[in-house]
Amino acid sequence: MDTISILFWSGGKDSLLALRMLEKTTSGVSLLTTYDEAENMVPVQSVPLRLIREQALYLGYMHTAIPIPFPCSNEVYLGRILSHLEKLPFKIDRLVFGDWHLEDIRKWREKVFGEKGYRCEFPIWQKEESDLLNLLFEEECRIVISAVDEKYLNIIQPGTEYNRTFIRNLPDHVDPMGENGEFHTRIIFP
What we know:
Blueprint: E1 3-8, H1 13-22, E2 29-36, E3 41-42, E4 47-48, H2 49-59, E5 62-68, H3 74-87, E6 91-96, H4 103-114, E7 120-121, H5 129-137, E8 142-148, H6 164-168, E9 183-188
Parallel strand pairs: 1-2, 1-6, 2-5, 6-7
Antiparallel strand pairs: 3-4, 8-9
């Protein structure tokens, strides 16, 4: 039986970076997205499920979308994902996430999924920002800001292109990768 790596796919830059790193080590990949069942959007990221499906089709990967309520408790989130994973017709090699520096989220994922027997992998974890940005800007796609924390709406607007100019113009207190939740992105392929 073939084994597959399940990449948790939000439709943003971190997911794309994780995918590109993952592709260096495996060919068996399937994308998994949780979405707000009422809005058909990826929560927090504000990426429409329709766009997520277009991304998966463009990339040529299997994709599964799991509906969740929003807001969603950790128990419901985990329950729906585990229920889905148990029904898959192939063996899961690992669960892959595009987390970069948020230690608490990584520890939570490793704990809850590890307790269920799943190995977690974080291919962009603590990689150099400049290396990630170089890899990202080599992609043949557009990257746009999809959501902005209210505190930053006076300096960042949804729909703005995420590129080197955007990054250069950010104030020092804003992480260029949006790692502290300042903003989120979505990928638009040609």
